[in-house]
Amino acid sequence: MHSFGYRANAVVTFAVTILAVMCGMASLSDNFNSPSPTADVKVLNINWFQKQPNGNDEVSLTLNISADLSSLFTWNTKQVFVFLAAEYETPQNALNQVSLWDGIIQSKEHAKFWIHTTNKYRFTDQGNNLRGKDFNLTLHWHIMPKTGKMFADKIVMTGYSLPEEYR
Amino acid sequence: MGWLSDSLDSIRTLQIRHVLTQIVSLGMIVTSALIIWKGLMCVTGSESPVVVVLSGSMEPGFKRGDILFLHMSKDPIRAGEIVVFNVDGREIPIVHRVIKVHERQDTGEVDILTKGDNNFGDDRLLYAHGQLWLQRHHIMGRAVGFLPYVGWVTIIMTEKPIIKYLLIGALGLLVITSKE
Questions:
Q1: Are residues A51 and A94 in the same domain?
Q2: Distance, CA of B62 to CA of B83 (rounded, Å)
């Protein structure tokens, strides 16, 4: 009845159960955090703007991104993946989301940042609809936990537009 | 001699009963595991509700051996989500992040481009030859939950099959020899 195997089994089962409950509670505790992040993005320059040989418009921007995401961090946060996407509508597509820049923040100390950069990924349209196009810049973040549920949210910034002519 | 055959018979029936009980309880374990797996498939809507991360392309977020819980809903796919997709001609599904989305006005079809957080470039080199975008049907699910390290069990078992057979053998022996 109380053999070694029986006791070992009971101990392991109990340990795994406790570990699972602790993981679940750590994940649930994330729900009590109500973050208040801020972000501001300026388009400093249109470096160039052209139609590629395959007919798609492509533009290169210089951006100034400043954000304070430190309130997103809890004790269960492993990292925050943050990226800036241009979002716009064209006659062909109801939604276009093009990621321009991204970064990984691994600690609360680095979550308040300021960066001056050109777009890291190509800002290319499916077609040639970018001349004079109004677009939103959206700062998305994706919280990756040490364990449990992942969270994502965004700040939409409106009122950006591209020039009428290629340059 | 009558009492000898009587006692032999009683031992025999006892052992048959014992073996039958063991078989039934083993069957219960196997079927309940199957029920949990199929139940998860129904709840999450994904054909594989749990995947093990096999490569380091999403480090430092996901490391090799971590497991991800998937969910497949009708919601449209958006940039920033981590999706699991199958590329034509490749057997192993890939877990990467969506960086570009183009959704059609009339049909609602989507063109998706993905990239691993730890990779330098986007995934067009991983796609089938000449394929520029992923479509909805390539996507198996999106990652919603994360549990570290647990996947190492399956990685070790698939890479060192001897350990798997040893484990199955030992468990089988335990089941057969246990007296309760």
A1: yes
A2: 13
- pLDDT surpassing 90 at residue A87: yes
| Of A68, A51, A45, nearest in space to A117 by CA | A45
- Residue A67 shares a structural domain with residue A125: yes
Residues B83 and B12 reside in one and the same domain: no
pLDDT tens, B42-95?
Answer: 888 888 888 898 888 888 889 999 999 998 888 889 999 999 998 888 888 899
Q: Among candidates B123, B140, B141, which has minimal Cα distance to B132?
A: B123
* Rounded Cα–Cα distance for residues B102 and A93 (Å): 6
**DSSP class of residue B64?**
T
User: What's the complex ipTM?
Assistant: 0.86
Q: Do A16 and A82 fall into the same domain?
A: no
User: Domain of A24?
Assistant: 1-32
Domain tally for chain A? Answer: 2
> Can you give the pLDDT at residue B19?
81
Asked if the structure places residue A63 within a domain, the reply is yes
- Closest residue of B to A99, CA-based? B99
CB contact under 8 A, A152 and B148: no
Structural domain span for residue B15: 1-44
- Examine the residue annotation and report whether B88 is marked as an active-site residue of this protein: no
Residues in B touching A28 (Cβ below 8 Å): none
Tell me the two tokens of residue B177: 């020899």
- B113-147 tens-digit pLDDT: 999 999 888 888 888 888 889 998 889 889 998 89
State what percent of residues in chain A have pLDDT above 70: 99
Does A122 share its domain with A155? yes
